[in-house]
Amino acid sequence: GAEGSTLTSYFSKNQIKALKPKVTFSTLRDLQCPVLESKELQGKPEESCSTEELLEWLGAVLNQVSLDNKSSSFLSTYCCPQPSTIVEKAFLCTITGFMIPEKIIQLLEQLCGYFGEPKLADWLTLTVHGFADSPVSWRENEHGFHKGGENLYNFVIFKNLDYWLQMALGTHDDCPP
């Protein structure tokens, strides 16, 4: 009715445009990384790290938290899980904005193409965060913000194309399918 036409004229007058996602690139030098084995989800002492340790480490890296466990740090005494290795150069790309699932699938395919020759990395990750205050969560159910609004999933892809899929959600949110 009249309300619909009023909204249409408002949006056409104000020329609402789709916002392009913001893309930033950075190179991390001499990054201490956990050693991972695709078949060892729980990790093995002195051989590989677990999925939980990886997700915690990834959070520290993405938030630029120091990994060297200095007692003088007021922010964090976190250190990289063991066993670990030093990666001379790690590439970090952050895309901020609204992304449709098809674009995320396209990104995944492009990342898998990175494992063509020469195989420079043993594994890579793609993390997708939903907005903390998004009204819906998995399965189109209401999203409970409560403390942190957890709402993300993370792919870890190995050079043999095995992968892990990790999901994080709030206490009161419905479990993903």
Comma- or semicolon-separated keywords:
177 residues, alpha+beta, 2 domains, 3-stranded antiparallel sheet, 21% helix, RNase_P_Rpp40, ribonuclease MRP activity, RPP40 protein, ribonuclease P activity
Can you walk through the features of this model?
- It is a single chain.
- By secondary structure, the chain is of the alpha+beta class.
- It has 2 domains: 29-94, no CATH class; 98-176, no CATH class.
- The chain has helices spanning 2-13, 51-62, 101-113; strands at residues 22-34, 84-96, 123-129, 151-158, 163-169.
- The radius of gyration is 20 Å and the shape is globular.
- It starts with a helix and ends in an 8-residue tail after the last strand.
- The mean pLDDT is 79.
β-strand number: 5
In helices, the fraction of residues equals 10-25%
Q: What shape does the CA trace take?
A: globular
Please indicate the percent range of residues in DSSP E strands (runs of 2 or more): 25-35%
- Specify the structural class: alpha+beta
Radius of gyration: 20 Å
Show unreliable segments. none
H-E string = HEHEHEEE
| Overall mean pLDDT | 79
Separation, N- and C-terminal Cα atoms: 38 Å
Total of domains: 2
> How would a crystallographer describe the biggest sheet?
3 strands, antiparallel
Strand order of the largest sheet: 3-4-5
Count of runs of 4 or more consecutive helical residues:
3
